Amino acid sequence: MSSRLDENDSIIVFDKVFVPYENVFAYGDIDKVNNFFPRSGFLPRFMFHGCTRFAVKLDFIAGLMLKSTEATGVKDFRGVKAQVGEVLAYRNLFWGLTDAMARTVTPWTEGHVSPNIEYGLAYRVMSNIVWTKIREIAENVLASALIYLPSHSNDLKVPEVRKFLDPYVRGSNNYGAEERIKLMKLVWDALGTEFGSRHALYERNYFGNHENIRTEVVMLAEVMGQADKYKGFAEQCMDEYNLDGWTVPDLIDPDDISVVMKR
After folding, report:
1. Rounded to the nearest 5°, which phi and psi values hold at 22?
2. Per the structure, how many domains does the chain have?
3. What sign for the dihedral angle of Cα 48, 54, 60, 66?
4. Residue 258 included in any domain
5. Nearest by Cα to 168 from 152, 184, 183, 150
6. Does residue 253 lie within any of the structural domains?
7. Does some domain include residue 106?
8. In a domain? residue 246
């Protein structure tokens, strides 16, 4: 996979550049520049795209985990099944967030809506946590199966070597050596190699550092009035009792049957 899909970053410095004025989006308009991000609809749409992309990636990883534990013969172990179930639950969580973003929309400009930004912000925080957790689960569950492999596919093309690989590197549940090797190489490619590590770093920092993606959840809750709503809920509960007991008619103090209060 890394030989076909790896992403190479580069730094490009344009020392002398001519940009036709008709191609300039904003120039000298500080208000327009500062408000592009919050008012253009970019943020909720970006997060909707990112959550969908992440959910598809989890579909792929879920399939790899199910096949890998089958190939290693541990799929029915209770602990293994519990951890694979956790991976599937994460997969379901992010597909659920994409549904919530699409169905519980937020009003935008007249006649238009945008994906729900609160669920989008939840995706940003949870993906930061989940990918690291999935990588840990894979390494715990598959363990040495990820390294008990020949170094190159050419080994399978050499008869003198292949005759040893077929009996000693085969898997369980009718997985032949070549199929098991191909599967485990793919898992290692996705999670353990430089390619896999780049993806882990990518998911941990996808559009925001680990603090910023969390503080923005608080900022949005304050701006949208949700923070006051949540505090009000807690305050409503606190208003229902005082030093003398309950203050609302639907809750009853147990003074008449309390041994402690009678003393």
Report:
1. -65, -15
2. 1
3. negative
4. no
5. 150
6. no
7. yes
8. no
